[in-house]
């Protein structure tokens, strides 16, 4: 309704917050994996709330930036083409 760009409703994609932290944006919720403010890894419970368990930071949706590249879960450094 608000946005009809061809988004996959069932899957999530990795996002950063102004280039920092790491989250997973799905159609209806944000999972905060790494806090952009304190750079701590979030616990699973709090990650699902989209709030940092360490400093309480809750990223604004406006700060989200999609991570370029394939959504693989491997640990290699991602290759930004910029
Ligand atoms: Zn934090």
* Helix run count: 1
Question: Helicity, in percent?
Answer: under 10%
Structural class: mainly beta
Mean pLDDT: 83
Shape: globular
Residue fraction in strands: 15-25%
Rounded Rg? 13 Å
Order of adjacent strands in the largest pleated sheet: 3-2-1-4
Distance between the termini: 32 Å
Order of helices and strands: EEEHE
Number of strands: 4
Question: Which blocks of ≥5 consecutive residues have pLDDT under 50?
Answer: none
Main beta-sheet strand count, sense and barrel state = 4 strands, antiparallel
Bound molecules: zinc ion
Topology:
Elements: E1 13-17, E2 20-25, E3 30-34, H1 44-49, E4 64-66
Antiparallel strand pairs: 1-2, 1-4, 2-3
The protein binds zinc ion.
Could you characterize what this model shows?
With 82 residues, the protein is mainly beta. It has a domain of 54 residues. 7% of the residues lie in helices and 23% in strands. It has a 4-stranded antiparallel β-sheet. A hairpin with a 2-residue loop joins strand 1 and strand 2. The protein is globular, with a radius of gyration of 13 Å. The structure holds zinc ion. Zinc ion binds next to loops. The site of zinc ion has 8 residues, from loops.
């Amino acid at each position: 309704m608000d946005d009809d760009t061809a988004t996959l409703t069932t899957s999530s994609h990795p996002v950063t917050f102004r280039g920092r932290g790491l989250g997973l944006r799905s159609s209806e919720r944000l999972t905060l994996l790494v806090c952009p403010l304190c750079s701590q890894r979030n616990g699973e419970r709090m990650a699902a709330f989209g709030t940092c368990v360490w400093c309480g930071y809750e990223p604004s949706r406006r700060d989200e930036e999609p991570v370029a590249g394939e959504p693989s879960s491997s640990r290699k450094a991602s290759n930004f083409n910029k």
